[in-house]
Input
Amino acid sequence: MTTFFSDWYYLSIRSIKQIWRPLLALIPSLFIPLFFFVVNSASLSAFSKVEGFPEGISYKDFIAPVALFTAIFFSAGNAGIELVQDISSGYFKKLIIMPISRLTIILGRLTEVAFQAVFQGLIVLVLLLAVGVHIKTGILGTIAIFALLMLFAMAWSCVSMIFALRTQNARLVQSMFVLVFPLLYLTTSQAPKNLLPPVFAAIAEKNPVTYIIEGVRALVLYDWSHPAVWQGFVIALILFVVLVALALNSFQKALK
Amino acid sequence: MPGNIIEVKDLRKTYPGNVEAVRGVSFHVKEGQFYGFLGPNGAGKTTTMNMLVNLVKRTSGEIIIDGQHLDQHARDIYAKIGFAMQEIGLDETATAREMLQLHGRLYHLPKERIEEQITKLLKLVELEKVADRYTSTYSGGMRRRFDLALSLIHEPKVLFLDEPTQGLDPHARQLIWNHLRDLNEKGMTIFLTTHFMDEAEALCDHIAIMDKGQIVTQGSVEELVTKHQAKNLEDVFLKTTGSNLGDEEVNLKAADPYARSRM
Output
């Protein structure tokens, strides 16, 4: 058991080093959420005056959680690309014939994703605070937001790793990027559910991303008692457990 | 009398599309032996080696390494073997020293031992001066030498080498040969596949020649030459396989899950 944790630790350090090299690669996944936040909060600010929009909340505050979420959503897919690089270079073979649990290889990648989510989320958070966004649940709420984002980022990165292991093709894994947009926009990210057209509202209700965004939003705009908080955590946890299990299964299948 | 460290019984591999890469191979390797595995391209050498280290699932057959069945004791066996593959797999985002440190840790060596091994191995493969450079900056020869060092970090009991000197200049080739001889003299069992007859003659004390998925002959170089009334090992090879080295291009890569085009 001791070696399990030490193997996990060393593989995490290796993966974390990979995301710093090159550091410039982190910029696009920060630029996109900030760009959308600035453009949307400026161009759609009048939307907060529409009947049915939550009272006393500006559109900027309403979409601030989306900027935080998007920052981690875009970068979490990189785990699959890094895995394909290991497979392509042949290094993956070296890892799998080491006397270590294969779960530690996945967990090492997930730790990197969690680390990156915190790092990128913090940068976005500082910028949001600088433009006047206020987090109602305070420091504890901020920690909870990061916990929720990390959990989802790790779950989503499993999807990219499953894709990587099944296809072993970097271009196909990169093309997964297109999934981010429907998953992000067919939610309540831009408008509350009661203001969405019925078809969109029905899709948003089935989209798990809605619950993560609503969880973060509840922690930013409301308080701990809001049901969206626990719903967000439950959905993120279920996604995490199921997708890690599926990633492990793909791992075993890809080996032979 | 040394015992068998590798025992292989009726090993078979059929890839999808009914491609029979390995067709009932049985052999054993004695502890401390330098075992050469020869054959033309597509003979099934790499598939056999990949099955021995559990990188390719066998269709049937039995593999026992150091008295342990591969199916039941894979992780124990991984701790005892080293593998330098034909396709050199390095982490391009790491330096050589970082990679050796990581591997030492993942093989659960004590910290001091890791540092001793790093110093020794970098010297062995003449890469001390470039140890802190990213491996992506290495030439082909440097990469191959480093890959050998990496496979030796935990001082394995059995070293598997798949074409270890392919693409090396004569100096680097000689350097590797000397190290391999030295390791073998110190008791390490070495299982080598090669295309070079001179390499097999210079290093191996037992040779198996494989063709079309089966072992067609085996023994020491002297035994093979006598048995096949040949002039030398190359002549044995030609007589038993009916082909010249490198002539046959049976492309099994399409069936290898790792060999698909990925980029």
